Amino acid sequence: MIDVIVVGAGPTGMMLAAELRLHGVHVVVLEKLAEPTPETRGRGLHARSVELMDQRGLLEQCLAVSEKFQIGGMFGGVHKAWPEGIDTAHPYGLAMPQPATERMLTEHALELGAEIRRGCEVVGVSQDEDGVTVELADGTRLSARYLVGCDGGRSAVRKLVGIGFPGEPATVETLLGTMELAEDPETVAAVVAEVRKTQLRFGIIDEGDGVHRVIVPAAGVTEDRTAPTTFEEFKQQLRAVAGTDFGVHSPRWLSRFTDATRQADRYRAGRVLLAGDAAHIHPPTGGQGLNLGIQDAFNLGWKLSATVNGWAPEGLLDSYHAERHPVGARVLDNTRAQMTLLGTEPGAVALRELFSKLMDFDEVNRYVTGMITAVDVRYDLGEDDGHELLGRRQRDVQLKQGRLYGLMHGGRGLLLDQTGRLSAAGWADRVDHVVDVSEELDAPAVLLRPDGHVVWVGEDQGELLDTLAKWFGAAAS
User: Fold this and answer.
1) Within a domain: 12
2) Which of residues 234, 258, 282 is at a domain's end?
3) pLDDT at 384 > cutoff 80
4) Chain centre distance of CA 94
5) Is residue 334 part of a domain?
6) Where does the FAD-binding domain lie (predicted)?
7) Last residue of a domain, one of 258, 279, 303
8) pLDDT number for residue 52
9) How far apart, in whole angstroms, are the C-alpha atoms of residue 242 and residue 191?
């Protein structure tokens, strides 16, 4: 029997597959599309996702196909300078198109031994206490111990399992695509600048090689979400909004998105789990969607692996929903606020002007930037009056032996011990014990989960043993 079936070979699904393979889990990825999509919906990795890539030894590959950017806030059309004091050793994002991210993660998962089966559409799901059975459109049936739906906002897995998806339907729609322009660059820039004085849901971005990414508000909300976007519709809306269609031609791909905002009421139903857009949809304001999905996978991967491999302590897999559902809800709320700021009515314009002035305060800019980049995420570990690091991810720090993230490529827990007096011997198969010191870490020792979040700070061996058992199961005999 397969250990885990992952449905969806996008960035979320491939990150999850790679995380599972780090722990020897037999994983099969099922993807409905016969070939990867050329669509570039997600256009970058925020600071927290950059950290994840570094933790798994993928950062150099990312840097080879992307460029760094530093924009503070990035909230509802308000962009400010990068603020001082963001707690990360990677104070930047990466302008990395989604196909490049997906390709890199796919290669990573394949190198680790994941199996990808394309052209496989899931049409049925059933489960019992022993496993999950998936039925494909061609009649094939596959069985696994667990199933994870990473199959997007219209997730077949979510619907087949009957997980609720409450929220708000679309009120506005935006057309998105890549194409060539006949108009000269100076005229394009001038028109875009003029239109964006009042319409921030409009833009044209030069992607090189004569290809441009074009974003323009649609005339209304399409009732049939499966209806294809037409090039003629694109040209009509460009003329309606900008007064010209810029001589657009040779479209590479066309799509549309809305401000629909929904979240699964549970991320787990028995042996079936959800991650990425299958668990939450929201407007792309702030560029958070792809990042949120990758971070879901990073949280889930080690917990599901521990469950499959038999050492997960009670409640570990359920902590996936407990930790990630509030994070997703927070993203939905901030995108709701951003869509209000992007409005064209007088009240929205006045609100945006006020918010822009507030963002000039460094503390406000730092708060918003931390929220958008997810470096401020802190999980509730149930610790009262605990250390300020508890629940937060540990930033990369310089050690005498190298950098911390360089020690985390295997996806194991890590005890960073500056005292040299502690022991995690009973968990050596799950936790690396590193005795080293860092001038950047103001704590005698920290215990990190495989996703880099801190679950213990101190120097008491008894407390350490209790925490190891809580997060990494019983000690080996």
Assistant:
1) yes
2) 258
3) no
4) 13
5) yes
6) 2-335
7) 258
8) 98
9) 7
Whole-angstrom Cα distance, residue 190 to residue 188? 5
CA-to-CA distance for 34 and 369, rounded, in angstroms?
38
Task: Supply the DSSP string of 237-254, one letter for each residue.
Answer: HHHHHHS--TT-EEEEEE
Segment 307-353, tens digit of pLDDT: 999 999 999 999 999 999 999 999 999 999 999 999 989 999 999 99
Residues 26 and 58 in one domain: yes
The CATH number that applies at residue 458 is 3.40.30.120
- 423 backbone dihedrals φ, ψ, rounded to 5°: -145, 140
DSSP string, 161-225: HT----EE--S-EEEEEEEE--S-HHHHHHHHHHHTTT-TT-EEEE-STTEEEEEEE-SS--S-T
pTM value surpassing 0.90:
yes
pLDDT of residue 42 exceeding 90, the answer is no
Q: Is 193 left (phi over 0), alpha (psi -120 to 50) or beta?
A: alpha
What is the domain range of residue 216? 173-258
Q: Which of 392, 396, 391, 430 is nearest to 411 (CA)?
A: 430
DSSP assigned state of 114: -
In a 3-state reduction of DSSP, which class is residue 33? coil
Amino acid 364 reads V
Q: Is the pLDDT of residue 37 over 80?
A: no
CB 446 within 8 A of CB 416: yes
137 and 39 share one domain: yes
Tokens 């911390």 correspond to 404
Note the pLDDT of residue 73: 73
Say yes or no to pLDDT of 427 above 70. yes
The strand pair at 72-75 and 413-417 is best described as unpaired
pLDDT in tens, 51-63: 999 999 999 999 9
pLDDT band of 97, cuts 50, 70, 90: confident
Domain count within the chain: 3
Give the 3-state secondary structure percentages of the chain, helix then strand then coil, rounded to 5. Answer: 35, 25, 40
Q: What is the mean pLDDT of the chain?
A: 94
- Dihedral, 11, 13, 30, 130 alpha carbons, nearest 10: 180
What is the C-alpha radius of gyration for the chain, rounded to an integer number of angstroms? 23
